[in-house]
Design goal:
homodimer; alpha/beta; TIM Barrel; Lyase, Ornithine Decarboxylase, Chain A, domain 1; 2 domains; nine-stranded parallel beta sheet; seven-stranded antiparallel beta sheet; 12 helices; 32% helix; 25% strand
């Protein structure tokens, strides 16, 4: 991903919310990355303490945390995200003037950000930011609508629409930058050169959701959850593992039925391809129920470790932060 | 719930997996509770360290943790759960002989446990437990199928079926006990006197899932997640809060559409009833998107705190363990 950003002449500012790991962060530093993205002040503080000096908190400003933003802004280059004139009024004169401000634009996802069609609002907020003395950096979006795409071509169409909207804004407000960066777009779109900055996060591990979107191959998935077998039920071709919602999250996919993960076996080199006709079919707090074949079931004993490829690695890694073995 | 157990002459052994809190545990101790249930060895160790001396780990034995079971069994009265002769073979002579063993019975839920119809297997495992020198305590079930019930009457039917199955087993194997305890059954069934032991857990907080099952009233829900407002979008009657899947979990309900929580406002006495026509309609890692009315939206400012009543308090409390304010 760093090479791709470089080939597109874009700044690579990876999102660290997926791994939230100082150790994994070091790999990025070793690859020459200097700027990162996080999604909360507490995460920003953690990585600032670990030596990161250029951090964007890509979550709309939380008015309850102004004191924390100011403290951090005195130590590092900090960028915040706003989408409201009310918030700019509240920040003005209370926030360290060195703080960078991105305007979040909603290019179609409909979560946070000002909708791109609201030209007056956009103009007024930018005027307010500039008047406040804060540093207006440019336009940021998260095209999360790519996660609902039915094909890589649809991801590319969503990206193209989104980047075109941001380019118009950049032309209207010169000397600003465009920051984009959902993992599906950054993985499937070849030429990202219209963007000034890329902020993908999930790609560090990928997961089954990304695999089914077409963002990665199954071999690109770089995280699995090691779960001991605690129940073997040949009469119903099911296995119970110690591995539930508190380890994997309840995120699921629905492809010929709901499932919460695929199952692999560990080898000396890592893990196998997913076991055929075998799925994590149900999850409760700490139990995982795997549906499988008589053939695979026969190979198992109580206490064997199975690996689960998660549906959504960000949530899984967050749940298992303190139990992650980085190889 | 303690009074109900007492009225039914059943031992109350509440499940502590919902709160996982030493502080909340003290309330139970003050109510005279001496025996508890947990779902992992690590949880058992935590509560043993906090002074609990009688603990059942209501999760099938994990063969990778025998050393830990033995250490704990030397300190406290420990009960484990098995559903396999293979596991008993593995435990025999390796597990401290003072350890109590429950046989988990599947009365219809289909997760873990030996299916009640497998009489030969049940007989063989009990013989193996007794031969091993371990202390055979009795029959334990979790009727999680009550969570799919369409009405309190259906919960009662599932409970009646389940307890009847266990009574037959108890009659066939005298001097054993029957341990049951899903929250829907324990909340809706009036007379629980056929059970020797009750292990509900969720009732300590309840949640929206229990409310819609008919286990509790909305006022019984004793946990909410305080989330700051970070986005207000009058053009689409939506609010964004800092409160996402890493705080609430992705558990949802589907009643006239999917939702991940209901919204309350804080008052001096606690919180209000759920705001009308207002739902947490979508969740990503840290963003929560609330659909609401123009009227409610107008009352809000950036930085206001809203409360979210969670769909599944066990998962929410697990995610926010370190950020829980107990009042």
């Amino acid at each position: 991903m760093a090479d791709k950003a470089s080939a597109s002449s874009a700044v690579f500012r990876p999102h660290f919310k997926t791994h939230q790991s100082v150790g994994v962060g070091k790999w990025f530093k070793e690859s020459g990355i200097e700027a990162i993205t996080v999604s909360s002040l507490s995460m920003a503080n953690e990585f600032a303490d670990a030596g990161w000096n250029d951090i964007t908190i890509a979550f709309p400003v939380n008015m309850r945390e102004l004191e924390g933003y100011n403290k951090l802004s005195k130590k590092i280059d900090l960028n915040l995200l706003v989408d409201s004139a009310e918030v700019i009024d509240g920040l003005s004169s209370r926030l360290d003037s060195g703080t960078g401000i991105f305007l979040e634009i909603d290019t179609g996802y409909g979560r946070s950000g000002i909708h791109f069609s609201e030209e007056d609002k956009i103009r007024n907020i930018i005027a307010a930011i500039r008047k406040s003395g804060l540093q207006f950096k440019g336009f940021l979006t998260h095209s999360g609508d790519t996660y609902s795409a039915k094909s890589p071509d649809e991801i590319k169409m969503i990206y193209t629409k989104s980047i075109s909207i941001l380019e118009v804004l950049k032309n209207n407000y010169p000397n600003t930058i465009i920051s984009v960066g959902d993992t599906p777009s950054c993985s499937t779109v070849h030429d990202l050169s219209q963007a000034d900055e890329l902020r993908p996060g999930n790609f560090v591990y990928y997961d089954l959701m990304q695999f089914y979107l077409g963002s990665c191959t199954i071999k690109d998935i770089a995280v699995s959850v090691a779960c001991p077998v605690t129940g073997i039920y040949p009469e119903r071709n099911e296995i119970v593992i110690y591995g539930g919602a508190v380890h994997l999250s309840k995120e699921f996919l629905d492809k010929d039925g709901k499932f919460f993960g695929l199952v692999v076996k560990y080898t000396d080199e890592g893990w196998t391809a997913p076991i055929a006709a075998t799925r994590l079919s149900s999850l409760s707090q700490e139990h995982g129920l795997i549906s499988t074949t008589p053939g695979f079931l026969k190979t198992l004993s109580h206490g064997d470790l199975l690996g689960v490829l998660p549906v959504h690695s960000c949530l899984t890694a967050n749940l298992l932060r303190e139990n992650t073995l980085i190889i």
